[in-house]
Write a structure and sequence with these properties.
Layout: H1 8-16, H2 20-27, H3 34-50, H4 60-67, E1 78-83, H5 95-110, E2 118-120, H6 130-140, E3 147-149, H7 153-156, H8 162-168, E4 173-177, E5 180-184, H9 201-209, H10 223-233, E6 242-246, E7 252-254, E8 259-260, H11 264-271, E9 277-281, E10 289-292, E11 295-299, E12 334-340, E13 346-352, E14 358-360, H12 362-366
Parallel strand pairs: 1-2, 2-3, 5-6, 6-9, 9-11
Antiparallel strand pairs: 1-12, 4-5, 7-8, 10-11, 12-13, 13-14
């Protein structure tokens, strides 16, 4: 149970320390429409989080906003929700990350109607330990809708996927749902850098978890999966929309941080014959949007922490999430939903826990201009 140790006067004083523009915004609530109410509520939910006045899981206003996402398409074919990049430590080692997962589960369970399924975008664990993966499995087991899992590098490189496969099954697979062909890939395959050097499993995991440790190799899908993907897609009509799930982005964004998939060009070539292709990926912990030929790419938010944007190479269609508040553990974090449209394109919704929700629509990406408020504006954070 959450206990607030602040006195009433301390709480009143904390909320009294508002900027003049905040006071003006509050006065507008007397005669406001629903959209304005939600926008204002989200701002002050963020203030409350920064002041530690409410527990993370009590942000019911965010849940309400998420249950009726601004910009949601009225003609959607179906919706799936997502949770990603939880980076859990063993039980009890990092309570904040556990609380954030509980909040994300609460968010997606509050959606009405319920999504057709929930995608988990990888990096369930931080160091790939069995206890971390087991904790994640228990927490995600509370999700009401069917769960689809993809693997991240933090889940894999302690035991090379042994525990992941035991808990969640194959690391790559495909399925069909309401006229869409879905493909889930393991995009964090690395060439063996550990055997020759004699690294222990723990050392191997620590190197991969370091992200920018130059002893590891770049991520790739690998020849085995590309061969499987080619055979899988050979059975699919070219007019069928394709949605691909991966952990790393299936393009070359920023190699020093391994925001990169080394054989992305070869994977894209396999997807190019199809009219409509969308890639949903984790790993980058940020609002991230790209478009390459027939493929539209969307990143997922993390529940653990936000990553800065790379110092170069940010796609022009990205809607930027500016510098996170270091005093608010939830700023830049969240979950979200994806509306799949009848033509197979998607509207991507970011449910930011301490900011207004953001949406990037298929219609915006079809135009040769960035979404409103987007565009390459240089690195943030």
């Amino acid at each position: 149970m959450y206990r607030n140790n602040m006195t009433r006067k301390e709480i009143e004083r904390r909320f009294a320390e508002r900027r003049p523009e905040d006071e003006k915004l509050l006065r507008t609530l007397r005669n406001c429409d629903r959209r304005h109410f939600l926008r204002t509520s989200l701002r002050f939910a963020g203030m409350a989080a920064a002041a530690s006045l409410v527990p993370h899981q009590s942000f019911q206003l965010v849940n309400v906003a998420h249950a009726a996402i601004p910009g949601a398409s009225p003609d959607q074919a179906f919706r799936f929700a997502y949770i990603s990049d939880t980076h859990l430590y063993d039980r009890g080692l990092d309570h904040r990350f556990v609380t954030s997962v509980l909040k994300a589960v609460e968010d997606v369970n509050a959606l009405d109607p319920q999504p057709d399924f929930v995608l988990f975008g990888g990096d369930l664990a931080q160091l790939g330990r069995p206890g971390e993966l087991e904790l994640g499995r228990q927490l995600l087991g509370e999700v009401r809708a069917p769960l689809r899992m993809i693997v991240g590098e933090h889940d894999w490189y302690l035991d090379l996927g042994e525990k992941w496969r035991e808990f969640f099954g194959p690391d790559y697979y495909s399925f069909d749902h309401k006229g869409i062909h879905f493909v889930a890939l393991n995009s964090v395959v690395e060439k063996d850098f550990w055997t020759e050097k004699g690294y222990t499993p723990e050392e191997r995991m620590a190197i991969v978890a370091g992200l920018d440790d130059n002893r590891q190799s770049p991520f790739e899908v690998g020849a085995e999966q590309r061969d499987w993907l080619q055979k899988d897609l050979a059975q699919v009509e070219r007019k069928t929309p394709i949605i691909v799930f991966s952990h790393s982005p299936l393009y070359k964004l920023y190699k020093p941080w391994n925001f990169w998939t080394d054989d992305a060009d070869e994977v894209q070539a396999l997807l190019r014959p199809f009219k409509t292709v969308t890639v949903i990926h984790g790993h980058t912990h940020q609002l991230l949007t790209n478009r390459i030929r027939n493929i539209q790419f969307h990143g997922l938010l993390s529940t653990a922490w936000p990553w800065p944007y790379a110092p170069e190479g940010l796609p022009e269609y990205t809607v930027q999430m500016f510098r996170a508040d270091p005093f608010n553990a939830l700023d830049g974090c969240g979950d979200g939903a994806v509306d799949v449209l009848p033509n197979g394109r998607v509207d991507k919704h970011y449910n930011l826990w301490a900011r207004n929700p953001r949406t990037v629509t298929a219609k915006q990406l079809a135009k040769r201009r960035p979404p409103e408020g987007g565009g390459h504006q240089g690195p943030s954070y």
